[in-house]
Each structure stands twice: as C-alpha cells, then as structure tokens.
Design brief:
Number of strands: 0
Protein name: DMT family transporter
Largest sheet: none
Radius of gyration: 19 Å
Pfam families: EamA (PF00892)
Keywords: Membrane, Transmembrane, Transmembrane helix
Subcellular location: Membrane
Membrane topology: Multi-pass membrane protein
Number of domains: 1
Length: 299
C-alpha cells in the first residue's frame, strides 16, 4: 500500500482518536463542574494543554520559530472567539449530558457555511440552505422534549450555551481561514491556548475553589486530553480531506454516549436520537459545500 492509500486511513484513525480525546476532556470538566468555577476549569485546561502542544511543536522543529506572526490582531480575534467558545462549552457541559453538548458542537460547520455567506460574500447555495434547515430541525427536536422536563430552565440554558459555543467556534475558524494564508498552524494553536489560559486566570478575583487532589488530577487530564485532541485533529485534516472524515462524526459521538451511560448514569434522550441524523445531515451538506467551493477554486 503506497502513501497515498495510507494517508486517508491514517487521517480517519486520527479523527476517531481525536473524538475519544475530546470526550475525555469534557468528561473531566463535567466531573468537576459542581465544585470548580468555569473560569478556573478554562485556565487549567488551557495551561496543561500547552504541554502536549509544545512537545509536538518541538518535535516538528516549529518551536519557537513557528510562533512568529505578521498578523497579531488576527490572532487576537481568533483567540478571543476561541476562548469565549471554551467558556460557553464548559458552562454547557455542566448543565447537559456530554453527548448533547458534543452534538451541539456539530453546529459549527453549519454556522461556518452560513458565515461564509454573511461575512465573506459567498453564494447562498442549495447545500448551505439544506444544511441550515436540517440543523434548525435538529436543534428543535433536541430542545422541545426538554421543555417538559422538571429541569427545563437549566437544560434550556445549556442548549443556549452549547449553541453559542458552536457559533463562536465557527467565527474563530472563519478567522483561521483568513489568517492561515500567512500564519503557521503552530502560532494559531499556541496563541489561542495562551489567550484562553489568561482569560481563565482573569476570573481569579471572582473566586476559585480549593482543589482536592482528585479535582486537580481531572483538570490536568482535561488539558492533556484537549491538547492531544487538537494535535490528532490537525494531523487528521492533513492526511484526509474534511469531506472524507465527515462520516466518522457518527463514531465520534459514540464516545460521549458511552461516557454518559457508564460514568454519569445518564441514558440517551429521545431528543438526542431524533436530532442526531438531522444535525449530522446538516454537517454533511455543509461539508459538501466546502468541497464544491474548493473544486471551483481549482478550476
């Protein structure tokens, strides 16, 4: 098997691994959410995510040389949006099952497709319209059953925060699309995590919790898992196109379902089961639109 055949397989395996690592990160954050404020979780997650990322960059000989930048304001915007998305995501997972938080994160490529029209002047195509329609339908069937629940207020806040996190992440990735023409992946990843750590540290005056050994260990693991997930996803996209990886989003959602069931005793909700094909269908259409746009640019 030559390299061209091996690369997609390697990319798919890394995508599946990144999903498992990302789930591990959210599990750690949810496990400490009752005792650790969101800002404190963001700080520790970001601080310890620097460890695998810096090691990875050193091995690739991109540290510190790869951190040079010609667009500091672009990094500031991307990092600020990414840090805000992390705050919203961690607040959401404190209120929702890990699986539902992860599913809402799948709105990101749909928001990116719409953002390309609103912010970048791209054409509003059938693919974008279909992606948006399926995503809205998926959110509706996820949220509506929760309206009857006794904890509806907390659930609705969680859904809103999860959607906000996806929207902010889409904005951050659209910014990455612009600055990556001149900036390295190393600098984009490093400055995002640095800004997120500083944003988390800024919440110290609001009151942080005294950490038990277990809570501290979980926060360290959240950072290591998060940093490793970022590396795995970066490499996956290097070895395989996003359109080829899209079907494996289903596998990435297996891990949070298992985590909710085995670790937190939370069954899969009917809303999640109904929303899953709709939201991932929207992701698929958004991915096809991105692939079509690439093909047009090459012509």
């Amino acid at each position: 098997m030559d390299n061209r055949q091996e690369r997609p397989v390697r990319g798919i395996l890394l995508r599946v691994l990144s999903g498992a690592l990302f789930t591990g990160m959210l599990v750690c954050i949810k496990a400490v959410s009752d005792e650790v404020p969101v800002g404190q979780s963001v700080f520790y997650r970001s601080l310890f995510a620097l460890v695998p990322i810096v090691v990875f960059l050193v091995l690739r000989r991109e540290f510190p040389g790869g951190l040079a930048t010609r667009r500091p304001l672009g990094h500031a915007l991307r990092s600020g949006l990414g840090a805000a998305a992390m705050f919203a995501s961690f607040a959401a997972v404190a209120l929702l099952p890990v699986a539902e938080t992860t599913l809402l994160a799948q709105l990101t490529p749909v928001f990116m497709a719409v953002g390309g029209v609103v912010l970048l002047g791209e054409r509003f195509s059938f693919y974008r319209a279909g992606a948006l329609g399926l995503a809205l339908a998926g959110v509706a069937v996820l949220v509506l059953p929760g309206l009857e629940a006794s904890r509806a207020h907390g659930q609705l806040a969680g859904y809103a925060l999860g959607g906000l996190s996806a929207l902010l992440t889409a904005g951050a990735l659209l910014t990455v699309r612009r600055i990556s023409r001149t900036e390295t992946a190393a600098s984009i990843a490093f400055y995002f995590i640095l800004v997120a750590a500083l944003a988390g540290l800024a919440t110290l005056p609001l009151g942080w919790a005294s950490l038990t050994q277990t809570a501290f260990a979980l926060l360290v693991l959240s950072g290591l898992f998060g940093g490793a997930a970022h590396i795995a996803m970066t490499l996956a996209l290097r070895y395989a196109e996003a359109s080829r990886l899209a079907p494996y989003e289903y596998i990435a959602l297996v891990w949070p379902v298992l985590a909710d069931w085995l670790l937190f005793g939370l069954p899969v909700s009917s809303g999640f089961i109904l929303a899953l094909p709709l939201l991932l269908g929207g992701v698929g259409l958004a991915t096809l639109e991105g692939r079509r746009a690439k093909r047009l640019l090459r012509q």
